[in-house]
């Protein structure tokens, strides 16, 4: 386990797009990201996840974040296996009930990820927020679906079509950017414009994928440009043919990695997050203040020939 207590700053409040809770009454929050290795034995996976959640809670964690497919093997590594559709469940369902029980038992908030079967019989990669009383707070579906060697996701997943949601726990507002969603700055900005101060990233990054080379770089840049904490829960160890990168981490809004792990599975990365750090970052780097949304129409409504075409004018 790696733990790093962040620094405190006495700083003036920065005007925000969405007013945060009074920083004088919102205490720091201890967050833990859990790095697991999945197998085809779901009960064994659950047992190990429960043990790690209990360990994190015993160390003072208030919010526990789990990686993509939290109690399953990472099945999209294997192409075109129809039997994996049988793993999908509705929400609420057996897995959400199990996580609710674990949250109540250990008195922690949990954000887990699972394979969702919707009422329309569609299949989603979905993260679910459970509070410490075991109540389901809400869910976020993955919106962008990857397709590359080891990630046969377009076969298994439907892109989410609902909104980018922001949740509130212990006075902290946060969004969830699932795996491939983390590469899209529009996702982070959608959370920030709703007052998010923290973005959780449940993922399954392998050491062999092209994105591994820029994994830390792009997350640190996102933390700075959006003025948020980012907490990443990745998988560790090996699930043939993938060797997972591990390196679950917590990054502060100044771009500093305040806690991280190596590539081994079944570890816990913990850190304390603090409101004054968010304010300090947004004071030093006032990107939200200086936005020009009236000039951004092309981002949402690009001309038909703009992608891959010639730049003129």
Give a short summary of the structure.
22% of the residues lie in helices and 24% in strands.
Topology:
Layout: E1 2-4, E2 29-35, H1 42-58, E3 63-65, H2 94-106, E4 109-117, E5 123-130, E6 136-141, E7 147-148, E8 151-152, H3 153-156, E9 167-169, E10 172-176, H4 185-192, E11 198-202, H5 215-226, E12 229-233, E13 238-239, E14 242-243, E15 249-251, E16 257-260, E17 267-273, H6 275-284, H7 297-300
Parallel strand pairs: 1-17, 2-3, 3-4, 10-11, 11-12
Antiparallel strand pairs: 2-17, 4-5, 5-6, 7-8, 9-10, 12-15, 13-14, 15-16
Enter the CATH topology name.
Nitrilase/N-carbamoyl-D-aminoacid amidohydrolase
Order of helices and strands: EEHEHEEEEEHEEHEHEEEEEEHH
Q: In which range does the helix fraction lie?
A: 10-25%
Counting DSSP E segments of at least 2 residues, the number of strands comes to 17
Highest CATH level, the class: Alpha Beta
CATH H-level name... which superfamily? Carbon-nitrogen hydrolase
**Span between termini:** 55 Å
Question: In this structure, how is the largest beta sheet organized?
Answer: 7 strands, mixed
Strand content: 15-25%
CATH architecture: 4-Layer Sandwich
Structural class: alpha/beta
What is the total number of structural domains?
A: 1
Task: Please give a structural write-up.
This protein has 313 residues and is of the alpha/beta class. It has one domain: Nitrilase/N-carbamoyl-D-aminoacid amidohydrolase (4-Layer Sandwich), CATH 3.60.110. It is 22% helix and 24% strand. It has helices at 42-58, 94-106, 153-156, 185-192, 215-226, 275-284, 297-300; strands spanning 2-4, 29-35, 63-65, 109-117, 123-130, 136-141, 147-148, 151-152, 167-169, 172-176, 198-202, 229-233, 238-239, 242-243, 249-251, 257-260, 267-273. The strands form four sheets. Strands 1-17-2-3-4-5-6 form a seven-stranded mixed β-sheet. It has a six-stranded mixed β-sheet with strand order 9-10-11-12-15-16, covered by helices on one side. The chain has a two-stranded antiparallel sheet with strand order 7-8. Strand 4 (109-117) and strand 5 form a beta hairpin.
